[in-house]
Amino acid sequence: MRKFIAIILVVIFPYCLCYGKGAGSTAAQFLCIQPGARPSGMGEVHVSVIGDGNSLYWNPAGLGYLDNAEICFTHMVYFQELNYNFISYCKPFSDLGTFSIGGITLYSGDIPKTSEDTLGNYVDTGETFTTLETAVIFGWGKKINSKLS
User: Fold this and answer.
1) pTM summary value
2) What is the rounded CA–CA span in Å between residue 61 and residue 148?
3) How many domains does the chain fold into?
4) Residue 76 — φ and ψ, nearest 5°?
5) CA 84 to CA 120: how far, in whole Å?
6) Residue 148 included in any domain
7) How many Cα atoms sit within 13 Å of 149 on the Cβ side?
8) What whole-number distance in Å separates Cα of residue 54 and Cα of residue 33?
9) Considering the domain boundaries, does residue 44 fall inside one?
10) For the chain, what is the largest distance between any 2 Cα atoms, rounded to a whole number of angstroms?
11) Which pairs count as long-range contacts for 37-44, CB under 8 Å and 24+ apart, including other chains?
12) Could you tell me which of 57, 101, 108 has the C-alpha nearest to residue 84?
């Protein structure tokens, strides 16, 4: 099992380095968008709430308090066809705790390509492009006793 985890980390880590941002900026800003209406409505203090499918994003230790399997899905439409999606599936196992897998995507829709003419004006090329940001999340939480997980 340790060898498998080491291989996964060796494969994933260099991929993350290739897509880093420049100096003075951060990568993966789409991860700062908070999923779920309840956590957002609570002023983004959902870390104290336990037993919810949103715990995968906010506080994986809270997964240990889930009694049943749960699916959580969030879809938000921002301006200009910018779509944000979050999904998580949490499955409790009696002795092992609760395992969860989830994903986050931010999709832009079609953005028109432009070029600059000799006068400095932007000209529509008739082509479009899209952007897609994706993250996969794994989590585990186990209830040790009623006050600790």
Assistant:
1) 0.72
2) 9
3) 1
4) -125, 135
5) 34
6) no
7) 22
8) 13
9) yes
10) 70
11) 37/74
12) 108
